[in-house]
Amino acid sequence: MISIEGLKVEFGVTPLFKDVSFVINKKDRIALVGKNGAGKSTLLKILAGMQRPTEGTVAVQRGVTIGYLPQVMVLSDTRTVRAEAEMAFEHIFEMKKHLEQMNQELSDRTDYDSPDYHGLIDRFTHENERFQMMGGNNYQAELERTLVGLGFARSDFDRPTSEFSGGWRMRIELAKLLLRHPDVLLLDEPTNHLDIESIQWLEGFLKMEPGAVVLVSHDRAFINNVTNRTIEISCGHIYDYRVPYDQFVVLRKERREQQLRAYENQQKEIKDTEDFIERFRYKATKAVQVQSRIKQLEKIVPVEVDEEDNSSLHLKFPPAIRSGNYPVICENLKKAYGSHVVFHDVNLTIHRGEKIAFVGKNGEGKSTLVKCIMDEIPYEGKLTIGHNVQIGYFAQNQAQLLDENLTVFDTIDRVAKGDIRLKIRDILGAFMFGGEASDKKVKVLSGGERSRLAMIRLLLEPVNLLILDEPTNHLDMRSKDVLKEAIREFDGTVIVVSHDREFLDGLVTKVYEFGGGLVKEHIGGIYDFLQKKKIENLNELHLSASTSEGVKKKEEKDPPSEGKLSYEAQREQTRKIRKLEKQVAELETSIEKMEQQVSALENRMATPEGAADMSLYQEHQKLKEQIAAAETEWETISLELEELK
């Protein structure tokens, strides 16, 4: 669908990348990876047509639509959430207006037998079928599903977007992009503003999309679950592998090892040939052999070894004094803004040396509790900071608080004290700001470079309680790995607010879940928590308020005798459960088959012959309606089944 040929981008003497050529095919799921500053976001902008390369071409197939979500964008605040999301359906509104005009013309005209009138009827029929096939009358349901999937409550739909934070407004932009269903989706760090549940929903959505996806993300679990191809930008070149990221890492290592072996063997062969030439150069009896070896040497094509990016982030927290046994104790903590209660009755004790995670949907109070611990905002209840606790705090907006007019060196020089000032260059080098990079102005740094600079500031003083609020946003995978290892070795206490499952895995041993005004403690790692949550969700996640009310009324009407059902009642309940389970299984099988039929139809409709066959559009619309009806029935039966269980 998109062909990239001989791409080169220069921002100075050294090209950002050169000789970049590859093709994006339908159903490609491409992870664009590389260290911060390698040119990933620049390449996405070029593919989106927002930036021109220095050399090379980007050819987009006729009719192919492209949707692009940048890391940062100018957002509008003049509509409600629903009205803003409806902007994705402008083409449907235009088509509806056109149909209304055609319908009015059919009503006004009286030349019923004329060829022109019949032609108008044919055009109206064709356009109306297209309108129905595009979901012209069902877009609201899809809009609501998408907004809910991205974490919005239905009560948010009619709120002005101005009431939401920048992260939530970015979710609205992502919803609009997904609802347009472009042929190629270009996503630059789409998970930065999402919580774990929304990321998992987005994974499922992207897997079902029929078009191509090219994404930049430092969330390893996300790209492994979504992508089937990895393109790495490294040292100005690209390396294209048709495998997910984890497999790419293995294959990339194997490839370089093979290149090194071939290079070493060739170097030995060259040295042996040069030694022979030198030894027998002046012997007449060996003149023919010497000339032959000289020609042989001239014909050797040097084996190229991929450059390896050896720059890395060596991060070590300085030693600090030992804190008390309980760095943080919360007793009946409550935080409210007017009538809105963020959380209440929070009781938790964090032990020295523990590494814990705060997780939950955005807006549920994770960062708010951190601000309470930092004593940045007032609260109700009791919060005790332990003896000798020295806090190091990395906030979500830390990188945005940097002075853009300072250089990298000056930024650190202004906060460094004592002997540490003599080591500023060494520290900057360890964070990939070596050489001329230390003289860059902050305003020209990428988001990842700013995050690293903000992280350096955190490391300048010894602490024994680290509080990291989304520390991995904009950090590349190599930097995240080193940061994770440093936190593992850190002998103090750590609180991490993060949605990055891969980063939290093997790092934390306790999870605090924020939701519904409560903070629940879960012992174990992040995947232990997610597994438990998945089991709980079967009973709780999709229950509506009306269903809960219905259950409550049923309990009031039929209280169980002594907390137990009779033997006959148990048998009857078991029989009902088995019947409902069978119905759910049959519906799931039926939905899966219909979705496969829809996919096959869409493949046929994508061909020139299929595009002209209106019966395919009618069949497609009919299947879509059947799937929607089956899904509604499945949801009803599933809720009834969960009630019985």
UniProtKB/TrEMBL annotation:
An example Gene Ontology molecular-function term: ATP binding
UniProt-annotated stretches for the region Disordered: 546-570
Superkingdom of origin organism: Bacteria
All copies of domain ABC transporter, residue ranges: 2-260, 328-541
CDD domains with a match to the protein in the record: ABCF_EF-3
Coiled-coil intervals, chain numbering: 570-633
Record keywords, A-Z: ATP-binding, Coiled coil, Nucleotide-binding
Keyword Coiled coil part of the UniProt annotation: yes
Bias (Basic and acidic residues): 550-561
Pfam family, one: ABC_tran_Xtn
The protein's name in its UniProt record: ABC-F family ATP-binding cassette domain-containing protein
